[in-house]
Amino acid sequence: MGKLKKIKVHIADDHMVLIDGIKAVLKTDEEIDVVGSSLNGEDVIEWYKSNKSDVLVLDINMPKVDGIGVLQEFSNQTSRPRIVVLSSYDDIKLVKEVLKIGADGFLAKKCAGEQIVQAIKTVHNGEQYFSEGVQQKIVSLFSGADNESKQAQDGVFVSSITDRELSILKLIAKEFNTKEIGNQLHISVNTVETHRKNLIRKLKVKNAVGLAIYAHKNQLV
Amino acid sequence: MGKLKKIKVHIADDHMVLIDGIKAVLKTDEEIDVVGSSLNGEDVIEWYKSNKSDVLVLDINMPKVDGIGVLQEFSNQTSRPRIVVLSSYDDIKLVKEVLKIGADGFLAKKCAGEQIVQAIKTVHNGEQYFSEGVQQKIVSLFSGADNESKQAQDGVFVSSITDRELSILKLIAKEFNTKEIGNQLHISVNTVETHRKNLIRKLKVKNAVGLAIYAHKNQLV
DNA sequence: ATCGAGCTCACGGAAAACCGTGAGCTAAAA
DNA sequence: TTTTAGCTCACGGTTTTCCGTGAGCTCGAT
Lengths: 221, 221
Description:
- The structure is a homodimer of 221-residue chains.
- With 221 residues, chain A is of the alpha/beta class.
- Chain A has eleven helices and six strands.
- Chain A starts with 6 loop residues before the first strand and ends with a helix.
- Chain A has two domains: 125 residues, Response regulator (Rossmann fold, 3-Layer(aba) Sandwich), CATH 3.40.50; 74 residues, Winged helix-like DNA-binding domain superfamily/Winged helix DNA-binding domain (Arc Repressor Mutant, subunit A).
- In chain A, β5, α5 and β6 form a beta-alpha-beta unit.
- Chain A has a six-stranded parallel beta sheet, with helices on both faces.
- About 10% of the residues of chain A have low confidence.
- In chain A, α2 runs parallel beside α3 and α9 crosses α10.
- The first copy, chain A, is 53% helix and 14% strand.
- At the A-B interface, α1, α5 and α11 of A face α1, α5 and α11 of B.
- Chain A binds a DNA duplex (30 and 30 nucleotides) through α8 and α10.
């Protein structure tokens, strides 16, 4: 029992049912030890100020500070845990985003419980781990013919939206209209319309409803 | 071991991680036995054609047939399991909806794992179970002064939307505009606008974006 | 048999969203 | 230092949404 140096894991998810569930699953594995858990991003950051773990299982959709925020917090720290992102959606855009800011693995929640064990061990071993559907999507992106692959990237990898656009996107997804957004941000309605226009183009949706849906799917609200 | 007649439980959720997690949690309880699980509503209905359980833990947001659909399927059956609805959102409107069509309990996913054990035992015992936040909301609705309570009900309990309105709502949430919806349903754009108007009024939102958000929050898509 | 709920449709006007296009400013990157 | 990316704003025209109001039809409940 004292022989193995267990992998210390911290779990962050706003659904306590899921945390308790994952804990119960991981308890069956001898190499893994759950040393902490958090219900929101703020608590995660707080926890790591006075504790440390080898791996962090991180949900994207959390109150206060979300998974993205936590990743950004860790991004300029030298000593940080390996991070497995947990998400309801296996959205390739989201995968790209979180990889860019320091995630080591990506696990869709639809995966079997056993996979989370595998994911933790894999990232702890210094490799990257992706659940099946994600893996396939990534591969298919780079397996296309040369001329097609560039277009495919244009189509799938969104030219990332700017900070300002993100603000507008969030407000649109909160049911505010152009005039109200302009007032809140102290900018002209014309400017808001320009941003909305660019968002619609970049995110390849048809209208404000599409933007709101995108925002909700990507847990921006 | 053979002494206790265990409570047979079936779990339905589209996230296998959650199923495996709940299974692991329930395994620690001597009175409960997980006898099956499903990843979508169709499988749930299929399973119960040749099996039975005492309690069904049912997620609302599932592909193919969602939790609502499963409840409706059970609603006119004599022999059906007690049902605990599991949902990401502790939306009082949703609670009212599922209770009306036969749910026995309502558990928000943010609850602790232990609560699911309690919920299963409670509904199996013939009582209703609600997680804390939901309980509070229900109580607060009926604890108000007489003159206020009626208004409060008007505000919180939505005058339920009709089947046709639901169809339109779903299509709006899929980014279709009025003309497209009219074509798909073979009705006039005027009619679609009427339905949309009534939806905006009934759901107390400001515009189509609000409708889309409502639809997504309530997992109608 | 009457009543109400649900679905259908129409019309007209106001408001908001949508679209293209062009352009000035600033700060950071090449 | 030149260039680029991001934020800002304007304008005119088209399309869509929003809103009130009224009305006919059907079906099931009272």
